[in-house]
Design goal:
The complex is a heterodimer of chains A (about 110) and B (about 110).
Chain A: E1 4-6, E2 11-14, E3 19-25, E4 33-38, E5 45-50, E6 54-58, E7 61-66, E8 71-76, E9 85-93, E10 101-104, E11 108-113
Parallel strand pairs in A: 2-11
Antiparallel strand pairs in A: 1-3, 3-8, 4-5, 4-9, 6-7, 7-8, 9-10, 9-11
Chain B: E1 4-7, E2 10-13, E3 19-25, E4 31-38, E5 42-51, E6 54-57, E7 64-70, E8 73-78, E9 87-94, E10 102-103, E11 107-111
Parallel strand pairs in B: 2-11
Antiparallel strand pairs in B: 1-3, 3-8, 4-5, 4-9, 5-6, 7-8, 9-10, 9-11
Classes of the chains: A mainly beta (about 110), B mainly beta (about 110).
């Protein structure tokens, strides 16, 4: 099982719809979870972080975490064409010596159609 | 990105030659990382540093070495470049290691 898994997609939604992106992880000890957005040809940009079970909202973005089921999701409300990008789920994995490392899923490409 | 600079932005090199990529930060962050990004594989960690002269391997470290002699600079060296190392390389920095990382703009490396 991959450490961090995302559906490969792509996902296409109409403008104004809700886009739902999902991610599962294998390490039950993980405590920190992130969503990055990456436009084509650009570097990943952190858009959401979540550390405890439940929902965390920031504008049109909501991150959801369920540690018992080991999944993280990202909801984008009122999707806009400018949201078209690849979304990367990432999880902090603790390692020997306490040097945590960020492990990424392969990403999900989202297209929002006008 | 502000505070983190990668150089060069693009490079074409021949198989068998050594190549060094540079990551420079002005944020005084303790942690620095090198990732490569390839279609179908996503972002994979090559090496990372948790302090000056303190480095460790990531999941795809074969054929790569790193050095960090100053807080602000983290160098990635391909000892003898191969075509399989054609990729986009990203440097990232983090203050505490457990929070989200900030990425540089990337280096597109082509090995011919």
């Amino acid at each position: 099982q991959k450490e961090v898994e995302q559906n490969s997609g792509p996902l296409s939604v109409p403008e104004g719809a809700i886009a739902s992106l999902n991610c599962t992880y294998s390490d039950r000890g993980s405590q920190s979870f992130f969503w990055y957005r990456q436009y084509s040809g650009k570097s990943p940009e952190l858009i959401m972080s979540i550390y405890s079970n439940g929902d965390k909202e920031d504008g049109r973005f909501t991150a959801q975490l369920n540690k018992a089921s080991q999944y993280v999701s990202l909801l984008i409300r009122d999707s806009q064409p400018s949201d078209s990008a690849t979304y990367l789920c990432a999880v902090i994995r603790a390692s020997q010596g306490g040097s945590e490392k960020l492990v990424f899923g392969k990403g999900m490409k989202l297209t929002v159609n006008p | 990105d502000a505070g983190i600079t990668q150089s060069p932005r693009h490079k074409v090199t021949e198989t068998g030659t050594p190549v060094t990529l540079r990551c420079h930060q002005t944020e005084n962050h303790r942690y620095m990382y090198w990732y490569r990004q390839d279609p179908g594989h996503g972002l994979r960690l090559i090496h990372y540093s948790y302090g000056v002269k303190d480095t460790d391997k990531g999941e795809v470290s074969d054929g790569y070495s790193v050095s960090r002699s100053k807080t602000e600079d983290f160098l990635l060296t391909l000892e003898s470049a191969t075509s399989s190392q054609t990729s986009v390389y990203f440097c990232a920095i983090s203050d505490q290691g457990t929070y989200g990382y900030t990425f540089g703009s990337g280096t597109r490396l082509t090995v011919v």
